[in-house]
Every structure is written in C-alpha cells, then in structure tokens.
Amino acid sequence: MLGGCSNPTDTSETNASDDALVSVAEYNGEGYALPYGKETDQIAEDHREQIEEATVTLFQENYQTEVVVHNVVGALDAATVFVESVGEPHFYTYAVVPIDEKEKKVMTEQISADAFQVENAIKGGLYHMIFSEEFKKLDNYFESLVAEGEVIGKTEAALKNVGGHGFMTPYYFITLTSKEEAIQPVYDLYLNDSNESVVALRNAYKTDLFDSENFKINIQLFMADKEENPSEAIFHEVTKVLEEMDSIPSGTYSFSLNDHYIDKKSGEGAKENSLKRSFPDYIVKE
To answer: Is the pTM of this model over 0.85?
Structure first.
C-alpha cells in the first residue's frame, strides 16, 4: 500500500525521470504518489477529519500512543495515513483506511496498521530513548558535518509527510528484523504502561540477547550543491569516521551518499550515481 515506504530497508536505485526530481532541501513530500491513488486521494481529502479521528483512536487503543496525522495519500482502494508520535518514544509510521471509490465512502471502521511495521517503529523509538547518550554522539557528528556546508539531509517536513520508516532523523532511520529480541521486554513494559520511566525501560533491556545483525541504522546524506555528484572524498571520510567512532549505538550501519535531488513521487534519493556502503560490507558496531 505504501509504495516508497513498503520496504524501509530497500536501498534500490530510483528510476525517476528528470521532471520527478526535486531539490532535497526543498522537498516536503509534495508530489508523493501511490499507484492508482488519484481518485481515492480526493475522496480521502474530503473526509480528512473523519480519517484523522479514526487514526488517532487506532493508535491510542492498540498501542497506548498518541499520534498526530500529517498527511493522507490516496492509494488503490484505500488511503495511507502518515503519522508521528507525540513525545517519546518518537517515531513515524502509517495506517491504511479502505475506500469504496464507487460509493465515495471512507470505511474508517476498517482502519488498520501493519502490526510488524508499527511494533518496529515503537521499538526503534524505545531504542533511541534508552540509549539517548549514544545516539546523541551520532547526531552531533552529523549535525557538525552538515554545518560544514557540503552535505545535507532530508527536511523535517519530508519526514512528517512521507516518512513512515519508524524512528527517523534527517540523516538516518532505524530498522529491526523480526529476530531482534533484546528490546522485546522494553516494548512489553511500554505497552503495559506508556508512562514508565526511562530508567525502568532501560533496566528491562536484555543486553545478552542483542545481535547487531538484527538492528540496523541506515544513513542517507545528500550533496548540498545542486551541481555536484556524490563526492568520493566525503563518502570515504564519513565511512572512516563511522568505522573509528566509539560509544555510538551498537548495530549494523549502512551509508548512502546521494546527489542533491530526490524523487518527489517516492521520496527516495538513491540513484545510479549514489555511493553506498551496505550489504555485504556493512559497518558493524558490537
């Protein structure tokens, strides 16, 4: 249903035509489209308030989490609803509302969310909460790198409107495999009481069950200059820094350096000229 967000770990290259490519510095999700969604997009917009109410209720009742709706995008016989959690754990995800195109009816009573996707989104947010100091070091590095003026990340508006990948920053997003067990007790504790302290959540974490293969941090940067191809020098510099950094989150890191442009229809930036460090040569932090 979600097109560009259906596989958050997919780093395949986009085949966007030139007219679909826009500046990543200006991209806010406008132009994002899902297959066969033109008619349902308008129906969803006509029932926006009804959809928002059903979405907020879904996440409150099923996941003890307050969310805000940022965007609704028509798809085949449905609409995809992009949401952001309020407070912590912080994450972006989505729900799907069936639409009867012939009757122009929005079936909010059948609203649903992909359980695996939402669970992983919450778990990613919980990871960031309980390892905030480690993530702060990683975030500080990217912020200082961007401040030098040669690379940039996605805009906050793009994350809000067409993100959906779970825990995300302008520079990276977190994904977990179904085999990741260390965070499960933390997740269970959070669902039981969403007001649990960070200390209690951290104490529930099972370090001995952690396997770096099951926890991935996917880094995506873009060239700040509209005319520049991805820089080999910057790519190797960032890779070297990541390899040598200590006290950053344990896990498996991938890194993609793209040119300045992003496909507005899919929200993806990887292209033929992108430079990548990924499978089978990940950067691994134990």
So the answer is: yes
